[in-house]
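PT: before anyone asks, these are the final sequences, not the draft ones from last week. 351 residues across everything. Please model them as a single complex and drop the result in this thread when it's through.
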Amino acid sequence: MKLKKMIISVLALCMAVQLLCACSDQSAVVSEKLHIGVTYYNQSDTFLNGLLESFREQLGELEKEGLEVTVTIRDAAGSQRTQNDQVKDLIDAGCTLLCVNLVDRADPSEIIDLARDNDVPIIFFNREPVAEDLMQWEKLYYVGAYAEQAGIMQGELAAEAILSDDSIDRNKDGKIQYVILEGEAGHQDAIIRTENAVEALRNNGVELEKLSYQIANWNRAQAQNRMEQMVSQFHDEIELVLANNDDMALGAIDAYKKLNDMENASPVFFGIDGTDVGLQAVLDSDMRGTVYNDKEGQAEAMVRLAAAIATGEGMQEIDFEKERCIYLSHWKITRENVEDYIKDGGDGTGE
Ligand code: GAL
Ligand code: CA
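LR: through. Structure below.
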């Protein structure tokens, strides 16, 4: 009896060891199929639609390299609860990798738990989770851009314009009366961009007077509405509008166009993103400048990372910061160089 028991346990042990070997073997084996589940905070966002379009295009390139890729994209429509459910559904549908643009960047715990329980890695993008959350599991990554740099560049562009053009200080008081259109409360790109733009203006010797700021959630129509309110309050006092993104700068321009006052009482406008409509506004001289938010570069980084996660190859070549984050750089765009970006799709090479 004792012998029988021993034989059974030895057999069980052998099976367990075999199983373990099979598992670790598998992680080394190239997985030829990649099923990516994407969920993003809101489908009305111009920049993110552009980013995802580029992501899809570049995934097509992976197929040429022999990886079989399927991608499912979901719109969370501004609800974190909806997004949590989508993540669950995407995992149930067999996704092997998730790309998540969080609705609430401070609330990723449920998503992280779901992913970890099912061993499905996540590439967060554009809306950066706080560092502690990203440290919860080693298969969590982030792809985005240097928020600080976008703000500094916007401030520098505005300073260059102001210092070289006396007419911007319309009331000739030696100060620039300005308003800010902010993205969302609590969003890293909103807070950091605003702070750094204002600081860069000051560092470049521009005297400022802040008249007001309004939150317009990255949205053109909301920005138009907020701008109309500010104009009715400050009339022609506003000399500079700093918007956290192009869509909001365009909304502000819409407000002035509606007032039919682009000529006399119009401030100068600066955006960030370099979306197609944003670039067009720079070309038309409606917007004085913008900062290119490299959606193609971010999409490429996501694709490369996805491929590396799927195949287990190429991870070493990726330039990570803070262990598992990738940040892309921005470029300044004015009337002088905007045509290069419109022509070349924005890779900055001017080719
Ligand atoms: C920013 C971008 C905005 C908006 C936002 C959404 O990086 O500049 O236009 O897309 O992300 O999180
Ligand atoms: Ca002034």
